[in-house]
Design brief:
The protein has 506 residues and is of the alpha+beta class. Helices cover 54% and strands 8% of the residues.
Length: 506
Amino acid sequence: MALLLDSWISEFILVVSVATLAIYLWFDHGFKYWKKKGIPFVEPSIPFGNFRKSILGQEALGVTTQRLYKQVPGERYVGHFGFCRPILLIRDPEIIRHILVKDFSTFHDRGIALDDKEPLNHNLFVLTGQKWRQLRVKLSPTFTSGKLKGMFKTMSECGREMADVLEAVAERGDTVEVRELAARYATDIIASVAFGIECNCQRNPDSEFRQWGRRIFKPTIQSGISNILSFISPTLTRLLRIRSGVAAVSEYFRRMVADTVAYREKNNITRKDFMDLLIQLKNKGVADPDNSAELTLNELAAQAFVFFAGGFETSSTTMSFALHELALNPSLQTKLQEEIDSVFKEYGTDITYDSISKMSYLDKVVCETLRKYPPLPILNRECNKEYRIPGSDLVLEKGTAVAVSILGLQHDPKYFPDPERFDPERFSEEEKAKRHPYVYLPFGEGPRICIGMRLGLLQVKVGLAYLLSRYNVRTTDKTVTNLEYNPRSIILMPKGGIQLRLEKRF
């Protein structure tokens, strides 16, 4: 019996040893990919490649990629690995221009893997190839100047409501988690302009719409690993069938959209909002009758979902980061308030589409916030055919992943001296003219630039203008000067929120 046991243990140890050796040799061979091509790369480690801290929940993905960017100063690009997947990080803004714009046809897909069986994943952000192209054309009319002007009254009303709700908070001198108040403001806007729903999150923070919004972006171990792997190793994501755990959220949004569509069609209700435009796409192809392709109800729900998720989270995060910096820099806050007061004096205290465009310093403040805190700190693309990097001998194979560290570029002292300092004057016309245009990419660039960019900027500006017209934003003993980012979030999200205090202006 002892001999049999010894034999079984020996065989087990042998099998494990052989398997371990095979895995090591497989990784070792894969990790030589960039070395064989003769380009600089950051040494990876088994099994996570260069993303151990991100996978283990110790560091945000955007921060990891920024760290890789900083490890090879002076290089035009640097190789690294997501598990065994070779990824090329582009550092040269001129190469970035080629990939995002000039040679877009070779890099039109993000190279992200998400569960195809989840209906909400069939949205504009994730879709590839011809499906993406057709949908982009269909949805583009949603964000024209005319449509934005039609949505502006709702934004203005929500901004004014936020300022009213905060009066009691300011009088008490309470510490406020500004990311939450900004999220409630942005959710009210998106719920109204996208779905025609008056959820009044600002007076009812536990409204159903706000609760589901929290669940979408609540960082969990499952969602964190799913999101990170979908970016750095789509093959592994598909192989392991990793899901993000959004089944309940998906069911709610699809049901809510189906009910909204059915109610409007049954009662012949027309509103000039995003849902109305989507219903036109479902029934007629597009708002343009010359295009006859139609959206299914699930596809309609997917676009409504990404509009909601992207519309409230990125805007509210940007707004809260701006308030954080203005509280830390009271002289800049005063300068901005003087501009807001001046425009209000000229145009009246109800913000209009025209008056917000007169606030040039506000625009600089928002731009500098997006520089220091880009909501999506990394861009991914996938090469769909052999491609020679301009000005080099490097030829990328079909399927090669490329990445751009927006956080790295926008914190590079070569382009933005003293990058940790918050300085809105970096975005004066004179300073912008000195920089390469592709070192500032908070919304991406080229045909896949964020379709809702202008709406997002308007939301942030309206919210800041109303709030700062009536209140000063101050730090408290709970305010963290140097913010850390949630390691489980793809979006650049402050860990623990942003704690500030409001005081009424006189």
